[in-house]
Write a structure and sequence with these properties.
Elements lengths: L5 H11 L2 H10 L6 H12 L2 H13 L9 H20 L9 H9 L3 H10 L2 H6 L4 H16 L2 H15 L4 H4 L9 E2 L2 E2 L4
Antiparallel strand pairs: 1-2
Length: 193
């Protein structure tokens, strides 16, 4: 069995840390004498699921705004949002998911044209009464990214909507009677073609 002295343990600890956790330990000291204190501080500040949740949300919301054409950054943001929601759900801490303040922070990070699209998707009443939350936003963003990465999807969707509304059943078909009603399907003759 290999044993290490506190110097090695402190070096290994510092090499595995990143971000706020690493800065917290460096603020205490990197001296070997403070190894036990560093472990206690990590457990206190970063071993608490609520602290971790706070840091995940903070990391998610404190980013520079995405430029309108940065598809990669939008995809990364969506993945990080989805992982954060999964984390919050896994520890049973769903309060931040339903927070209107967190929803506002999540929306504000988006480019303005996508943000406006989300506002059109929802109504002011939905935003005020809390029926729109981070779950709804994440699902909407996932669907939006699918069309954003496939520009033809919007065109196809618009064409399908136009076809359904304009060509559903021409007026002259309403006056027709046939021996066999199966000949007509939404105004179009289907048999004998």
């Amino acid at each position: 069995k290999t044993t290490f002295d506190d110097n090695i343990w402190m070096l290994r600890l510092l090499s595995t840390l990143d971000g706020d956790a690493k800065r917290a330990i460096e603020a205490i000291s990197t001296s070997v004498r403070f190894y036990a204190t560093a472990l206690k501080a990590l457990k206190r500040d970063f071993g608490n699921p609520l602290s971790i949740s706070y840091l995940r949300l903070k990391n998610l919301f404190e980013k520079p705004q995405i430029k309108s054409n940065d598809r990669l950054l939008l995809r990364q943001y969506h993945q990080e949002l989805k992982l954060t929601l999964s984390w919050l759900e896994s520890i049973g801490y769903e309060v931040p998911i339903y927070s209107s303040e967190n929803l506002t922070k999540a929306i504000m990070w988006l480019p303005s044209h996508i943000r406006q699209s989300f506002y059109k998707f929802t109504s002011n009443n939905d935003l005020i009464d809390g029926s729109v939350n981070l779950y709804v936003f994440e699902k909407w963003l996932e669907d939006k990214l699918k069309t954003f990465f496939n520009p033809l999807a919007d065109i196809i969707s618009d064409c399908e909507t136009t076809i359904k509304t304009k060509f559903n059943r021409p007026k002259f078909f309403n006056n027709l009677t046939t021996k066999n009603d199966d000949e007509f399907n939404d105004g179009f003759i289907t048999e004998g073609w």
